[in-house]
Amino acid sequence: RVCVQAPVGPTTVDRLQRHCGRLPTVRFGSTETCLQVMGTPLYLSESERLDAFKAGWDHVFGGQPQTGYYIGRPHPPYTECKIVKSTERGQAGYMVECAEGEPGQLVTRGGNIMKGYVANPEATAKAIHDGGWYVNLGDVAFWLKNGKDGGRDFYWLSRDSALLIRGGANYSYEQINTELAAFVARQYGLPEEAVAVAVVGLRITSEHEDECCVTIELNTPEAKAKSAEIESTFLKHAKKGVSKGAKPDRVRVAPLPRNFKGAVLVPDLKKVWAELAK
Q1: What residues form DSSP beta bridges with 169?
Q2: Of 51, 53, 175, 186, which sits most exposed with the smallest number of CB within 10 A?
Q3: Are both 84 and 190 inside the same structural domain?
Q4: Contact 78/112 with Cβ under 8 angstroms?
Q5: What does the radius of gyration of the chain's CA atoms come to, in whole angstroms?
Q6: Continuous H helices in the chain
Q7: Are both 52 and 65 inside the same structural domain?
Q8: Phi and psi of 70, rounded to 5°?
Q9: Can you tell me the distance from the alpha carbon of 111 to that of 132, in angstroms, rounded to the nearest whole number?
Q10: Is the dihedral of CA 59, 62, 65, 66 positive or negative?
Q11: Cβ contact 16:48 at 8 Å
Q12: pLDDT over 80 (residue 228)
């Protein structure tokens, strides 16, 4: 009942409870951290841990759903973790802790952290910052105060390659995709299943902030008939009708690049937008 390499959502928890009568034990870490920096605390009861899982699934921040997957707590005094606004030296919010529920970069330190990359001091300096903080996990997460014992529970949100940074705040692609897809369906009178949206953040006109580049895929004849209208009016309508973090800067209507499982290929999408921005 130990889960690795994947977020633990409601379906997994439900299956394990039905077939095994137990909750999964989640462990979180990476190769550079000697595998584990945190895990679901076994000193909490089954019901208390289930409540912690549910708190992440139901989480809302800034008025928008932010589904998080419970990854537990650090192991003091051996491992320490926190969520920060930025891990880029010289950038606003560098190593500044996020508020409760606010998405940010997950960083960690402890005696378990590697000493460095062999014969590569430059890579080591990028990965391990002052105070011994390892900043290369590459994960976006948030924390919530546990209502039972007051402990700080951590939740995985996404990889930081799926993070848009603007106005000193972090927004997950998933969060923006969900909001914009619902907006397109509502604004243009389409069923939600007729629309798919994928955003990427690119620093095109600024060295510090991402532009929100939106690709809209239309999947029914009815939706495709509105392609020209959507492409020409979406930016104007969306700037007035969506949250601050989801406001789009650029839009195109086109099929989304996907793998054989149907997942959007974000790197391919970034390449397309980088070419269009030239």
Answers
A1: 166
A2: 186
A3: no
A4: yes
A5: 20
A6: 10-20, 46-57, 121-127, 173-187, 221-224, 227-241, 266-276
A7: yes
A8: -65, 125
A9: 9
A10: negative
A11: no
A12: yes
Burial class (CB in 10 A: 0-12, 13-18, 19+), 255: exposed
195 plus 59 within the same structural domain: no
Render 89-124 in DSSP notation, one character per residue.
Answer: TTSTTBTPBPPTT--EEEEEEETTS----TT-HHHH
Q: What is the pLDDT of residues 99-133, one digit of tens each?
A: 999 999 999 999 999 999 999 999 999 999 999 99
How many whole angstroms from its chain centre is CA 141?
7
Q: Which domain holds residue 43?
A: 2-164
Scan for tokens 């030239």, then name that residue: 278
- Residue 120 and residue 153 in one domain: yes
Q: In CATH, what number is assigned to the domain containing residue 132?
A: 3.40.50.12780
> CA torsion angle for 254, 257, 262, 263 (degrees, to 10)?
-110
CB 68 within 8 A of CB 157: yes
Burial class (CB in 10 A: 0-12, 13-18, 19+), 51: middle
Residues in the chain, how many? 278
pTM comes to 0.71
Give the confidence band of 5 by pLDDT, cuts at 50, 70, 90: low
Using one digit for the tens of pLDDT, what is the confidence trace for 10-39? 988 999 999 999 999 999 999 999 989 999
DSSP-derived secondary structure for 169-188? EEEEHHHHHHHHHHHHHHHT
Query: Which of 145, 164, 183 lies at the terminal end of a domain, its last residue?
Result: 164
Q: Tokens 């105070």 map to which residue?
A: 131
